[in-house]
Amino acid sequence: MHEMALTESIVEIAVETAKREGAARVRRVFADIGALSHVEPEALLFCFDAVSAGTIAEGASLEIARVAGAGWCMDCGKTVPLAERFGPCPECGRFHVQMTAGDEMRVREIEVE
């Protein structure tokens, strides 16, 4: 399960940032996860408590926002929603779509005290 390693990275980013800023505790971590990133948000949430145990992020919550998939179709010149990687353009049906959103995974914000 690669979500465990990803969760470890999220906690590491939160803890290092909080310490660098002089915070004593991480209260909440806000993450953006793309719908096409092949990451299961539920698995991240499941792993978060175990990974953050024993750190200044212990007891913190992980808030995940899903980012919808989107792309630009080179054939019809439109920005279109994408439901899958390498899928066809929903407007023209061709497969020349450059993904522009939906594959990201980032820590957007950290709430500390």
Fraction in helix? 25-40%
| Named CATH topology | hypothetical protein PF0899 fold
- Spans of 5+ residues with little confidence (pLDDT < 50)? none
**Structural class label:** alpha+beta
**H-E string:** HEHEEEEE
CATH architecture: 2-Layer Sandwich
Shape: elongated
- Number of strand elements: 6
Biggest sheet record? 3 strands, mixed
Mean pLDDT: 96
Number of helices: 2
Q: Count structural domains.
A: 1
Radius of gyration over C-alpha positions, nearest whole angstrom:
17 Å
Q: Which CATH C-level class is it? A: Alpha Beta
Can you list the strand order of the major beta sheet?
2-1-6
The N- and C-terminal alpha carbons lie at a distance of 32 Å
**In percent terms, what proportion of residues is strand?**
25-35%
Can you describe what's shown?
The relative contact order is 0.26. Strands 2-1-6 form a 3-stranded mixed beta sheet, covered by helices on one side. It has a 3-stranded antiparallel beta sheet with strand order 4-3-5, with no helix packed on it. Strand 3 and strand 4 form a beta hairpin. The chain is an alpha+beta fold.
Structural descriptors:
hypothetical protein PF0899 fold, 113 residues, alpha+beta
Put the structure in a nutshell.
The chain is α+β, with helices and mostly antiparallel strands and 113 residues long. 27% of the residues lie in helices and 32% in strands. It has one domain: hypothetical protein PF0899 fold.
